[in-house]
């Protein structure tokens, strides 16, 4: 099972990283100023490690970090809609923004004083005026969210939090399906063979796979070293 | 030690062992090695199958058989629908073919996991006693599809705690991985239903407890629930990005709810002949 999941998730996430790295590099070459800002960012990253913590609290902070990222992304999408956004797309993306904001604030409230701080997103690789860039990023965020929650289920000890994770992951999967269908309508992509294995199982990845994949989207350096494995 | 003697004795103990090992062998070797090679490597395969391919506890077996029953139902439903001439418009054929493929895969996966303890496939009646015509009427077909998928999502979710208590970790994760597939199916099926009915209130996610039949969306924990882990979502701080008149609906959409085993069986019963 484990091998199955890793081979499932790995290539997708690797491809994501490479694509965003290349896109960022392209931006750097075009603007010139990028290298300086990157250096400043790196300096900041080193001095501000955000430690997710241990046990169930660590897993909840892990979910909180992912939801922060998703909420910030969709807030930006709706604040600066890409050209040609249809009414259907606007409704779907607005709904998803609401859901992610609620998820984020739910985890913040559930964690109370144990919550990590608000993270600073880095969406430099996403062109918010371009439909393909925005929906492509949305697809990655949703598939990653599904994979992360599915992979974290076994790491949660409190059954109530397992249940909450289950209640959220199916909504993330509904999002992933809708976004994928916007990109390639009425195709098999809503649950495509690129991510679903031959047993009909969805993605599942451990934090050790997910965190490096999402790190490029966050200015703060995130540490999951205390998380259950 | 002779591999075939092991198989013979294992089959006396467990009539389905040979089939399961063949299945595992196929998966492990991807049909690319010769029979001789497969036989040479067989002890390793056998060890893997005996140690890992079984669900370990009675509690897990109970849950997986429950899941298998639902998957049998969904699998047959899509097989009949996808085979029915003139039912599914061309533009939607790829969607329902893909859904059907997954349900067939889920049946095979669960049967492998359960081995000899797998329940037999029931006889289904998708007319629910002559009241529905899902294989001649596309609206009815999509209506049942979305109801079955949403039931599936809620049914798997309802068993996560039982699988956790059974300490059968590989199957907890597998159940979660099937669960999110059912949710992907539910999302597309609901969106198609919304389009063919020209009803914008039917979205990929469940608003309040919108949806029919009622039993799928209400139950002891209704889909309109807004209190999660003791926290009232509507009263959360930091919801300024959501218009106040949209908060309640969005809160119901943002979390899916469970159905109990009894609630699910009550929903499925009209479609099961025996």
UniProtKB/TrEMBL annotation, chain A:
InterPro entries: Ferritin-like_SF. It comes from the Bacteria. This is Ferritin-like domain-containing protein. It comes from Dyadobacter sandarakinus.
Automatic annotation (TrEMBL), chain B:
Pfam families: Ferritin_2. It comes from the Bacteria. This is Ferritin-like domain-containing protein. It comes from Dyadobacter sandarakinus.
């Amino acid at each position: 099972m484990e091998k199955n999941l890793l081979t499932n998730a790995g290539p997708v996430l690797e491809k994501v990283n490479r694509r965003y790295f290349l896109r960022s590099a392209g931006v750097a070459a075009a603007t010139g100023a990028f290298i300086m800002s990157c250096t400043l960012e790196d300096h900041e990253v080193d001095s501000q490690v955000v430690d997710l913590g241990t046990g169930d609290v660590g897993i909840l902070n892990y979910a909180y970090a992912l939801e922060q990222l998703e909420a910030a992304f969709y807030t930006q999408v709706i604040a600066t809609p890409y050209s040609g956004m249809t009414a259907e797309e606007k409704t779907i993306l607005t709904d998803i923004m609401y859901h992610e904001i609620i998820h984020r604030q739910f985890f913040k409230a559930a964690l109370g004083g144990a919550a990590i701080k608000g993270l600073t997103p880095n969406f430099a690789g996403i062109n918010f005026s371009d439909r393909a860039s925005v929906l492509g990023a949305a697809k990655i965020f949703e598939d990653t969210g599904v994979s992360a929650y599915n992979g974290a289920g076994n790491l949660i000890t409190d059954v109530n939090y397992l249940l909450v994770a289950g209640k959220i992951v199916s909504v993330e999967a509904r999002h992933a399906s809708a976004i994928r269908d916007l990109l390639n309508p009425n195709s098999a992509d809503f649950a495509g063979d690129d991510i679903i294995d031959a047993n009909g199982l969805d993605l599942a990845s451990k934090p050790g796979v997910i965190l490096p994949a999402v790190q490029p989207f966050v200015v703060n350096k995130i540490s999951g070293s205390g998380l259950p494995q | 030690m002779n591999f075939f003697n092991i198989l013979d004795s294992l089959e006396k103990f467990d009539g389905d062992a040979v089939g399961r090992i063949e299945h595992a062998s196929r998966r492990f070797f991807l049909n690319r090695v010769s029979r001789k090679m497969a036989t040479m490597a067989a002890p390793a395969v056998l060890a893997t199958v005996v140690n890992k391919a079984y669900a370990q506890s009675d509690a897990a077996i109970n849950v997986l058989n429950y899941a298998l029953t639902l998957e049998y139902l969904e699998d047959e439903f899509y097989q009949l629908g996808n085979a029915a001439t003139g039912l599914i418009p061309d533009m939607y054929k790829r969607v329902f073919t893909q859904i059907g493929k997954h349900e067939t895969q889920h049946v095979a996966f669960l049967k492998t996991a359960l081995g000899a303890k797998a329940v037999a496939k029931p006889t289904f009646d998708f007319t629910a006693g002559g009241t529905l015509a899902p294989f001649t009427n596309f609206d009815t077909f999509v209506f049942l599809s979305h109801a079955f998928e949403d039931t599936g999502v809620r049914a798997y979710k309802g068993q996560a705690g039982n699988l956790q208590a059974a300490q059968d970790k590989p199957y907890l994760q597998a159940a979660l991985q099937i669960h999110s597939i059912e949710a992907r199916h539910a999302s597309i099926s609901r969106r198609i239903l919304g389009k063919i009915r020209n009803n914008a209130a039917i979205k990929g996610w469940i608003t309040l407890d919108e949806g029919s039949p009622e039993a799928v969306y209400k139950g002891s924990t209704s889909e309109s629930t807004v209190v999660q882990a003791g926290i009232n979502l509507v009263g959360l701080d930091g919801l300024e990005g959501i218009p106040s008149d949209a908060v309640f609906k969005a809160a119901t959409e943002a979390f899916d709810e469970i159905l109990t085993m009894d609630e699910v069986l009550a929903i499925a019963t009209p479609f099961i002949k025996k």
